């Protein structure tokens, strides 16, 4: 799961700021000031600056040529491009890993699905997003390709913003239904069908993002 205690102050600041950005607590365009953040979080300037640099790599914070930092704005074009990238990476990992799944993997996937649904039911969107991401991670890691998972991790927070900006939207249902059907297919031994259904999730997700999430 994704709930381990960060090993360093920088990691703790990264997690805190990432959560605030993806939930909209720090809205797109918000000016990021080192000293104010350090004072609010009770840390020195150094871990704040290191965290900002990390979140810039993840695409959550924009650093302008004059060194001012703002929370990255999300446009429809950005969102659809991110979904396309995630689709390519995650679907490749799922296809590579699905044949290696064991009963233990399936048990973990069932557990993550329960946590995903429960998180949404109770309004814990961060916990739900983490559980939903872990559902896919279990399969991707079963491929044995950790480099691929590293690439997925770089964009997952940005794609989570698309979901978390509309926590009440039926866009979540795309993932709930998709995961459940994938589990049923895997229980029947239909790995090819499960892969096809996983790819379909991204097709449906993109369509909803395109039609519902942005005005432009």
TrEMBL record:
<protein>
    <recommendedName>
        <fullName>HTH gntR-type domain-containing protein</fullName>
    </recommendedName>
</protein>
<dbReference type="GO" id="GO:0003700">
    <property type="term" value="F:DNA-binding transcription factor activity"/>
</dbReference>
<keyword id="KW-0805">Transcription regulation</keyword>
<feature type="domain" description="HTH gntR-type">
    <location>
        <begin position="7"/>
        <end position="74"/>
    </location>
</feature>
<dbReference type="Pfam" id="PF07729">
    <property type="entry name" value="FCD"/>
</dbReference>
<dbReference type="InterPro" id="IPR000524">
    <property type="entry name" value="Tscrpt_reg_HTH_GntR"/>
</dbReference>
<keyword id="KW-0804">Transcription</keyword>
<dbReference type="Pfam" id="PF00392">
    <property type="entry name" value="GntR"/>
</dbReference>
<dbReference type="InterPro" id="IPR036388">
    <property type="entry name" value="WH-like_DNA-bd_sf"/>
</dbReference>
<dbReference type="InterPro" id="IPR036390">
    <property type="entry name" value="WH_DNA-bd_sf"/>
</dbReference>
<dbReference type="GO" id="GO:0003677">
    <property type="term" value="F:DNA binding"/>
</dbReference>
<dbReference type="InterPro" id="IPR008920">
    <property type="entry name" value="TF_FadR/GntR_C"/>
</dbReference>
<dbReference type="InterPro" id="IPR011711">
    <property type="entry name" value="GntR_C"/>
</dbReference>
<keyword id="KW-0238">DNA-binding</keyword>
């Amino acid at each position: 799961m994704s709930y381990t205690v960060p090993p360093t102050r920088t990691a703790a600041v990264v997690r805190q700021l990432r959560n605030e950005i993806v939930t909209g607590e720090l809205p797109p365009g918000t000016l990021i000031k080192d000293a104010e953040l350090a004072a609010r979080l009770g840390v020195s300037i150094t871990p704040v600056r290191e965290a900002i640099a990390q979140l810039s790599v993840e695409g959550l914070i924009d650093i302008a040529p004059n060194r001012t930092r703002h929370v990255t704005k999300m446009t429809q074009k950005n969102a659809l491009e991110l979904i396309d990238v995630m689709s390519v990476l995650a679907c490749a990992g799922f296809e590579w890993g699905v044949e290696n799944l064991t009963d233990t993997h399936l048990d973990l996937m069932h557990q993550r699905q329960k946590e995903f649904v429960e998180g949404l039911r109770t309004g814990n969107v961060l916990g739900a997003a983490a559980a939903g991401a872990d559902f896919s991670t279990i399969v991707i890691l079963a491929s044995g390709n950790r480099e691929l998972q590293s690439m997925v991790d770089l964009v997952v927070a940005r794609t989570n913003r698309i979901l978390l900006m509309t926590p009440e939207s039926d866009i979540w249902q795309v993932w709930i239904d998709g995961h459940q059907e994938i589990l049923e297919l895997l229980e029947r031994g239909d790995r090819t069908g499960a892969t096809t259904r996983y790819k379909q999730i991204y097709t449906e997700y993109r369509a909803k993002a395109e039609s519902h999430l942005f005005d432009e």
